[in-house]
Amino acid sequence: MSGEEIWPSVEKESRKSLPPFDNSSGYNSKTGIYHSLEKLGTKHEIPTDQNVNTASLVLSQFPQAELADAKIAFIDLNTNHSVTYGELRRSVYSLATALFHGLEVRKGDVVFLLSPNSVLYSTICLAVLSIGAILTTANPLNTKSEIAKQVRDSGAKLAISTPEELHKLVPTGVPTLLTSGSSDVKYLSVEELIEGCYDSQELPCVSVEQSDTAAILYSSGTTGVSKGVVLTHSNLITIIKLFCWSADVSASQDDVFLAFIPMFHIYGLMFFGFGLLCVGATTVLMQKYNFQAMLTAIEKYKVSNIPAVPPVIHALVKHASKDGCDLSSLRRVGSGAAPLSKEMSQEFRKMFPWVELRTGYGLTESCGGASFFASDKDAKAHPEACGKLIPTFCAKVMDIETGKPLPPNKEGELWLKSGTIMKEYLGNMEATAATVDSEGWLRTGDLGYIDENGVICIVERIKELIKHKGYQVAPAELESVLLSHPLIVDAAVIPVEDEETGQVPMAYVVRRAGSQLSEDHVIQFVAGQVAPYKKVRRVSFIDNIPRSAAGKILRKDLVSQSKYELVSKL
C-alpha cells in the first residue's frame, strides 16, 4: 500500500475519533488507536501537489541569492573543505543534467551509491531523485558478495562509488561512476561531470510524482535477512516536513551539527542528506565514527547538535571526562536507531547537565520517524522512553496472544500508521503482507507500551526476547545492568538453547583494558540486581561487540558464535 493511500485514511480516522479522545495519552478507547497530540501547523503542511518531489522540495528550502553563497552547508572534517548552499544547488543541477543528457539515466532507473559520508553525498542523492531515478545506498564495509546481491536485487543500472570501493563493484558488471578522479582513466567521476559543460544545458524536465518510487533502502537485517524497503517521494516528503517541524522545536539556524551517522542509513540520509538542508544548518561531516576525532571536531567547530546512537552516548559517559576536550558548545544530543537505557540516560545528564538529551524512535520502514521528545522537560521526566508520537502518526499496541488493541501501560507489539510508511519490500510480497496489513498498519516487531501521557517505551525486539521457563527476558534490560559495572566497556546478551528451561541468557562482555574480571564475578553482579529467572547463566569475553552501522547489536552473529564455541568445547 502506498503512502498516498495511507495518508488520507489516517486523516479520516483522526476526524472520526474525535471525540472521545484522551487529551493526555491520545488514546481512543473505541478504536484502540493512539493519536499524536502534536500538530504540524500551516508552516509545515505536507504538500499534496503530485508534482512536488523530494529534490524540488529540498532545493526550494535553500537560502536564496547571495545568502546561499554565504551560508555553509557542509564541512569535510578530514580536509576542512566547505560547500555553501549556493555551490550545492549548482552542483545538483549540473550533475542531474549530466546524468540525464550525458549518461542517459532515465526515470525509474536505479542508481547504486557506495560511499561513506562526503560533501558530495547530498549532491548525488538530490541529482538522482530530481530526474526521477531511484536511489539505493549501501554500506562501504559490505563485502563483494553483499554488494553483488544488492545490485542484483535492486536492479541497479548505474553505480556511483568511491575509488577505494570500486573493486567490489567490478565483478557485478554494472556501469560505474567514481565520486572523484583516479588514475584509472576508464572511469568518469562525479566531480568531472559537475565541473564539465553540462551546467550550460537546461535541467531536464522530468515529471516526477509523489507516488513514484524514490529510494530502495535495505533494512539492517539484525534479526534476519536484509530486505529492500521501497519508499516513495510521498514518504520522503512527509518525513522531511516532519523533520522541519522537529527542528523548529529543537534546533536553530545557528546550530552546527556533527555527522558520523552514515548517510547510507535512513537515520543519516533523512537527517544530513535532506532534512538539515531544509533548515539552513551547517553540518560537519565525518567519513566514519571515531571517538577521539568526534571530540576534536566538537571543540574545533563549536558543534552544538549531535544526532547520535547509544554506543556513542555510552562512550561519552565512560571516557569524555578523561580526554580534556572542551565540550561546552554542545546544546543537544539525540539518540536513535537502538534503545538507550534509563541508567545511561541519567548518567549522561549527570555528567553533561547543560546538554539536552532527546531520544527518538523509528524504522527504515517508517522513513526513520515515529516518536520524538519535543520538550527536554518531557525527556528528563521519562529517561526510559523514546518520545511521543510525532504529527500525522497513529499507533496501536497489540496483544501478542489475542491480537487485540491494548490501553495505556499494557505491553504488546507496537503498530504504526502514517504517510511515511513504506510502499513494500522489494519483490517480496510475503514479507510485505506479514509486515503491513490491508489497512496500512506497520507491524514494527517491537514490544512496548504507551503510558497515560502518550509516552512510548520500547522494551525489546519481540524476536530477541529470551524465553526462560515460560518467562520473557529482555536482553536490553540485562545489558543495562552489565554496562553499569565500572570494568565493563560494552556488553550484549543473547539466548542459548537449554533442554530444561528452553533458553538461558548468555552475556558477551568487553572488559576494560587490563581488567581481570571473571565469568563468576559477572554472573554474581547481575544476579544481585535482577529476578532469579533473569540471571545471566554464561559469560564469554570478547574484544568487540558486533554492531550494525546504526549501532544496533548484531545478535544473530553472536548466536552463531556461541554455537561455534559450544561445538568447540564438545
TrEMBL record:
Designated name of the protein: 4-coumarate--CoA ligase
Organism of derivation: Vicia faba (Broad bean)
Entry keyword annotation includes Nucleotidyltransferase: no
Residue ranges constituting the AMP-binding enzyme C-terminal domain according to the UniProt record: 477-552
Keyword Cell wall biogenesis/degradation included in the entry's annotation: no
GO MF annotation: an example: ATP binding
Domain called AMP-dependent synthetase/ligase: residue spans: 68-426
One of the Pfam families matching this protein, by short name: AMP-binding_C
